[in-house]
Amino acid sequence: MAKQALCVGINNFKNYPSAALQGCVNDADDMQSLLKNLLGFQDTDIVKLTDTKATKTNIIKNLKEMVEGAKNGKYSYLVFSMSSHGTQVPDLSGDEPDRADEAFCPYDLAQKGDVWDPKHIITDDELRDLFIQLPKDVLLEVYLDTCHSGTGLKAIDFLLDRKPRYLPLLSMEAFLKVDGKRPRGLNKALMEKGITHHILWAACRADQTSADASINGGWHGAFTYYFCKEMVSSKNKLSRSAILEKIRKDLRAGNYTQIPQLECEATVRDKTIG
Questions:
Q1: Which SS3 state, helix, strand or coil, does residue 90 take?
Q2: Contact criterion met (CB below 8 Å) for 34 and 231
Q3: Which pTM value belongs to this model?
Q4: CATH number, domain at 159?
Q5: Contact (Cβ atoms closer than 8 angstroms) between residue 114 and residue 196
């Protein structure tokens, strides 16, 4: 099976130094190592973008190249991992005014007035429009260690050894545009287009935050850390659903509030990764 992966990790944001995270670059490194050491990827099969290299232009460019390669029969298995801040924006496509778009923050995140600049933020609609082009015989596996809502924040999420990977909206006006609206999310956006040949791992539920955390002497996304830990420990002999349950158990033991999600067809849940 010909493979290609894009691993993105962003700790620092060009225009928002106070929004810095500490574990996202380590996530990209950890995912790269996992793909190489356990899932049969070669160095040439993986592109890693971190911090200054992880602009919206670069991320979208590399995703487009992956999709085009798959359309041309070059790849049959694609992996995309993203560790960064998440946020929300009003539905930019206008197709569902009662919904909010989930959005991912690149290194060059910027605002336009009191809202995020569409040229410098990545929405779930943009990812959907790319991924719906994939042939049905190509399997896409996405790992999102980020979050898009602050509604579930609790005091424990602000301990000194952890920080939520969520950026709040820029103004009351921007907040009112998404307040009370249902976030669609990437999985639902793809399902609405009839795309079922994808697997989405999310670090938390839609109403929760994912932790950027200090674990065993280093900073990581809590989800990515325990995902990689359980994959290595099991030598990829367990099904996706079994790995998910182990990650959830690890997070509960660490008093994390997030509950990771695995969204895919039932037949794929019971298979190993890769």
A1: strand
A2: yes
A3: 0.89
A4: 3.40.50.1460
A5: no
Q: Is residue 274 part of a domain?
A: no
* Mean pLDDT value across residues 191-206: 75
Query: How far, in whole angstroms, is CA 77 from its chain's centroid?
Result: 17
In the set 7, 24, 85, 220, the catalytic residue is 85
- 53-102 pLDDT, tens digit per residue, is 999 999 999 999 999 999 999 999 999 999 999 988 776 555 554 466 78
8 A C-beta contact, residue 82 and residue 8: yes
Range of the domain at 74: 3-269
For the chain, the helix, strand and coil percentages under 3-state DSSP, each to the nearest 5: 35, 25, 40
Report the domain count for the chain: 1
Domain presence at residue 152? yes
Cα 189 to Cα 47: distance, rounded to the nearest angstrom? 25
- Average of per-residue pLDDT across 151-175: 62
pLDDT score for 227: 98
The active-site residue out of 105, 147, 228, 264 is 147
76-88 in b/e form (b: 16+ CB < 10 A) is ebbbbbbbbbbbb
- Catalytic annotation on 147? yes
Residue 85 a catalytic site member: yes
Tokens for 26, please give them. Answer: 């380590």
Q: Is residue 226 part of a domain?
A: yes
- Give the CB-side neighbour count of residue 144, counting CA atoms within 13 A: 32
